[in-house]
Amino acid sequence: xxxxxxxxxxLFCPAQNEPAKIQLRLAGSKRKHNEGRVEVxxxxxxxxxxxxDFSIYAATVVCRELGYVEAVSWSPSAKxxxxxxxxxxxxxxxxxxxVTLAECSSNGFGVSDCKHSExxxxxxxxxxxxxFRFVGNLNIQVEDVRIRAILSWQRKRIPxxxxxxxxxxGGRWRQICNEAWTPTNSRVICGMFGFPGEKKMVAMRRKNKxxxxxxxxxxxxxxxxxxxxxxxxxxxxxxxxxxxxxxxVSCVPGRVFAPTPVTGFRKAYRQEQPLVRLKGGAVVGEGRVEVxxxxxxxxxxxxNWDLRSATVVCRELGxxxxxxxxTGGRMGxxxxxxxxxxxxxxxxxKSITECYFNRDSLGCSHxxxxxxxxxxxxxxxxxxxxxxxxxxxxEGRVEVxAERNGSLVxxxxxxxxxxxxxATVVCRQLGLxxxxxxxxxxxxxxxxxxxxxxxMSGVRCSGTEMSLSHCLHHGKYIHCxxxxxxxxxxxxxxxxxxxxxxxxxxxxxxxxxxDRPMFMLxxxxxxxxxxxxAQGASxxxxxxxxxxxxxxxxxxxxxxxxxxxxxxWIWHECHRHYHSMEVFTHxxxxxxxxxxxAEGHKASFCLEDSECDEGIEKRYACANFGPQGITVGxxxxxxxxIDCQWIxxxxxxxxxxxxxxxxxxxxxxxxxxxxxxxxxxxxRYDGYRIWTYNCHIGGSLSFxxxxxxxxxxTNQLSYR
Length: 720
Fold this sequence. Notes:
EC number: 1.4.3.13
Family: Belongs to the lysyl oxidase family.
Number of helices: 8
InterPro entries: LOX-like_protein, Lysyl_oxidase, Lysyl_oxidase_CS, SRCR, SRCR-like_dom_sf
Function: Mediates the post-translational oxidative deamination of lysine residues on target proteins leading to the formation of deaminated lysine (allysine).
Structural class: mainly beta
Shape: globular
């Protein structure tokens, strides 16, 4: 036993003075490249670290050793999945000042009583340590990566799709030798810059100084930092790339970013029915993942959701690799079924529908809806618009860069027809989230005096454009009767927004007919809730009313608040309370060919929290001139027996019809998603009874199915 003790002392004493040579990487089921299970390369073998006694100080050492400024958090109990092989370190104690994890005290390498269910993980800051230099690490850790156009004229093209791949190390940009370069490396690089594909390209120019490493990617990495370093290129004389030339990549942009020879970039097109889409995101390339199955859209449960699966979605949609795999309904909660659970992708699938998944979604709720943030090409849109004069970067007068007399100048936008949809595009273009308000007067935001001239007028947006220049607008001839100055357009933006969704089942289950005498409808008649044929009707005449209840949920991330202030609310005698939105819904009845057969009316509302999800308190009430709105996670119910909660069908003949309800039809209040503001039902009326069926919200069905329901399309909501 003495001999054994002596041997142990000899083995571990040197480690107290000279730390063992180790290498680190972040592995496992990652949702970002800067997080994962901590793995240590020691003695020729990768292993993990036990979570016993681990701390934020140890996490900081790990992150700094990997080139990140600091640690954000650490996670016990194999949050990023269980590793394999040895558990190299246990009971790790760090002060946070160590240069390498090997300097921290521990039980010693390989001395552990842990299981892989105790593997520790960390989340590092996204910020890199400036000038950080890595030696011998098996994962690529560099300050930055770029694609630099080969020819000067190519540098003016947006986006830059091909060029030299360069890495910045020690503050200097260096090219990479293509001696061991593979197509899978190009795939990863292109994905990082927002491109779903790559094609072969060869450079014909040599250089003497190259980066001192090669790259070894498998092709399914979301970021080059997840690839491994290969051997250094062959040196000969002054050349550090004797057997190769600089790496050049040529990336293939997705359809929406691909230039066309005539018009530049595509602005609008009737696309084929996709199998996957993103909803609820503030900017291009992010949102809640929804997939189409049996003609109906549904969500994906976040169990096992990681960067590989998210990257498959991003590439399928024409973006690059995923920056982040989002969980917990962070892009808002969807409606309808949960189609996929426990998705596992290799990273090379053409569609998420090709990945393995558990078809049993029991136990998954929309609180677990998965989302993504994708890499998108740098289009330069943010450089062509700015907000000026605001109290913070999220608000101000809108100023755009326009060509006038052969030069680019900054100027203002005419506020005629300026509304929420236009503000939505500006906020998206600037990467500032959702629109909060659109302003038609901006005298309180003086802006840049040199940019007072109106350079853009007649702007009309659908709300889906990537840039304000993609919206309809006047050409070089500006028409702005109000002029600029105080009447220039302005916006305020927000990181969050509400999202109203009508419950279609509630409408379907509560629809019925009532014949009501005019003497009981005088108040409703005064508020224009009856068709024009009611004019001159006697008190004993009856009107036939299609009654129904509406239940409007706020599934967004911000409360829905009326635009009008308290002092402008209108008292409604019928309901005996103030209405904060004079036009909140439209009720209409259409024939099967799309023509309106009943004179629907514009219903005004008092907004309040009727009920809320468990754990959420009501904040808004109509009584006593209280504050109005709908809290996130709550819903406002207008019962079928309330005045004006109907369509007057007295003059409608028996037949088959489409019943439609549109919420917030004039976009008076900004939302994260307007496509779900329309609800349609099929109706059959025999002159005595009515049947309502197949009720659904806009965008919940495939193109083919929704085309069988005439009326408004989900992108034609505005009545402006």
